[in-house]
Amino acid sequence: MDKFSRGLLAGLAFASVAGASEAWASCAGGDGRGWASGKGDGAFEMAPGAATCLMNYPNVIHADDRRMPATQVTLTRAPKSGKIGLSKQGVVYTPNAGFRGKDRFCTRNTAAAFPGQTLSGCVTVTVR
User: Are 77 and 41 contacting, i.e. CB atoms less than 8 angstroms apart?
Assistant: First the structure.
């Protein structure tokens, strides 16, 4: 990756976090790999006292290298100790009051711009 691309990615990551609420900025992790093959495996960790965790939508990558967030989400396995919501930025996990530990949910995601391409996988959220 060239110097310009690294700087651009760093700027986008900063803008993403800078625009998030304080509670959302207290969640770190990533979608992981394997979403295109149906074996996505994301992991996020919430900081102590954080109310919610915002996770970016996984991206569909088209054959011509265009990337599009897969914002059409179907919950295929609900979390046991929290609930899932959607925002413009991504999936929002909110733990049940008093819950501490690991919770897991699974989704199937698509992007209207790329019909027929589906991403699916599970995400583990650790609540401190």
Answer: no
- Tell me how far CA of residue 113 lies from CA of 59, 102, 116, in angstroms: 12, 34, 10
Please state, in angstroms and rounded to a whole number, the distance separating the CA atoms of residues 128 and 111.
32
Q: What is the pTM of this model?
A: 0.77
Rounded Cα gap, residues 107 and 77, in angstroms: 7
Q: State the average pLDDT for the chain.
A: 82
Number of domains in the chain: 1
pLDDT in tens, 6-29: 333 333 332 333 334 444 457 899
Q: Which amino acid is at 32?
A: G
Look up the domain containing 123 and give its range. 3-127
Percent of the chain scoring above 70 in pLDDT = 80
